[in-house]
Amino acid sequence: MIQIEHLSKSFASPAARTHPSPETGQHALHDVSLTIEDGDIFGIIGSSGAGKSTLVRCINLLERPTSGHISVDGREITGYKGRQLLQLRASMGMIFQHFSLFQQRSVLRNVSFPLEIQRKPRRVCESRAIELLELVGIAEKEQAYPSQLSGGQQQRVAIARALANNPRVMLCDEATSALDTATTASILELLHSINAELGVTIIVITHSLAVTERICNRIAVLDKGRLVEQGATREVLRNPQSQATRELIAADRVAAFPAAACESAGKAGERAGKTADEAAGKDRGEAATEGTRGAAGTRSPGDTGLACKGADL
Amino acid sequence: MEALQTFFENYGALLARGTLDTLLMTSVSTLCAYILGIPLGILVTITAPQGLRPHPVCNTVLGWILNIGRSIPFIILLVALIPLTRFLVGTALGVAGAIVPLVFAAAPFVGRMVEQSLAEVDDGLVEAAQSFGASLWQIVYKVLLRESVPSLIRGASITFITLFGYSAMAGTVGAGGLGDIAIRYGYQRYQDDVMLAAVLLCIILVQIVQTIGDVSARKIDKRNR
User: Fold this and answer.
1) Residue in B closest to A95 by C-alpha
2) Is B4 a member of any domain?
C-alpha cells in the first residue's frame, strides 16, 4: 500500500524562477493526498503540466517532495538516502513514454540490467532475463538491439526490464503515449495480465481517458498540481464532480465524435506530413493525436473484446 | 624510376624510423592523455549544474583547468615543460621527451571530448538507470560510458590525429619522427624530396587512422541498424 499525505513539490531551480510555466511553475504539486492499495491498477490523469509525472517520480524519489509524506507498506520513505534509497528504487519497476532502453545493449542485457545493478551473477541474470522475455512474448528477440525493434516490442522489453527485480509496484509514465492504437491495446493487455497474474500494483500516468477506462480500477484526477477527484474509475467517469474531470471527458467525447474525428484526422495527416522528419511522438500535437486515435479505437468493433475486459475490472 | 630507387636507398631507413617514432609518440601520448582525460571528463560532467552530483566550485575549477590547458600554444608548452619532462622521463629529447608535453597538451582536450560524448547520452537512460536503483558509479560506468562508446572512439581518432600534428612541432625541439625529418631535411637543408616523402607519409597515416576510427565506431554502434 502506498499512502501519499499532503504532498507538495515546488521547483526552486533557476529555470523555474526565470521561466514560470505549467511544467516548471513554483508549485508542481500542491497538497496531494491519496492511497494506492496493493493490487490496484491506479490511473493518474490530467492534462499536460498537471503534475502527473512529478507525482509518480516522487513515489520512487526521482523527485524529492518539498513537503508531505509518502509511505510504502507502512514505511515512511521521504527521508531515504544512500543505500536505503537505492534499495527502495530497486523494489519498484518503471517504464517510460520513450521506452528508455539502452541502445548499445542487446535486449537480453537490457532486461538483465536491474539484476546487474544488484550484482547478481551473470548466469542468474541471463536465465531470469530469458524467463521475463518469454513472459512478455518476445523471447525470440533476445539477441536483437533496441533500434531493430518496433515501438510495441521496445515497450515489451522495457516491461520485462521493469519486472526483473520482482517489484511489488510498477510505475508507468505515459507508457502508451508514443504507440498506435493496436499496440496500445496489446501493451495495456500485457500490463493487465501482469497485474492479475503477478499481483503487481501498477500506477499508470496518462492523459488518455481510453487508457484509464480499459485497465484502471481506480483513478485520481490532477489539475494544476492539485488533486481534484479520485475514486473508482467508472464512478468518476460516470459522475464527474470537478470541472477539470468534465473537461477531460468532454475533450475525449469531441475526439471520439465521428465528424470531429474525421476533421482532426485530416489535420493530423497534415501535421504528420509536416513533422515527418522530426522524431516521432515527441511533438505534443502528435501526442494529442495519439489520444484521439486511442479514444476512437475503444469504440471500434475490433476492440470490443479488450474493452469488455477493461469493463470487467 | 632509378631516381626513386636511389632515394629509397638513401632515405628509406630514415623515413621508416621516422614513421615508427611518430606512431609510437602519438599512440603512447594518446593513451596517457585518455588515462588522465577520461576522469576529467567524467568529473566535469557529473559536477555540472544539471549533473548527477552538482558541485559548482569543483565544476568551475575543472572548467578553468580544461580551458587554460587548451589555450596555451603547444610550442610554448613544449619549451615550458622541459624541466618537468627531464624530471619525469630523464630527458627532454627524443620520443620519450616529446610524450610528456604531448600528454599535457592533450589531456584537457580529451577531457572536453569525453564531456561532449557523455553529454550525448539521452537523459532518459540515466533516469531509467536511477529508477532501477543504480548508484552513481554504476550509472557512469554502465550507462554514460557504455552508451557513448562509438562517440568516444570517434573522439579518440580526432585526438590521435591532433597529437600527430603536434608531434611534428615536437620535432623542432629534437623529438624525432616524420615532422622532425620534414623540418630538418626539407626546411633546413632544402631537400624538398625528403620533405615531400615525409608529408606524404603523414597524409597516408592520418587517412588510415581516421578510416579505422570511423569504421570501428560504425561497427560497434548498435543504433540505426
Assistant:
1) B128
2) no
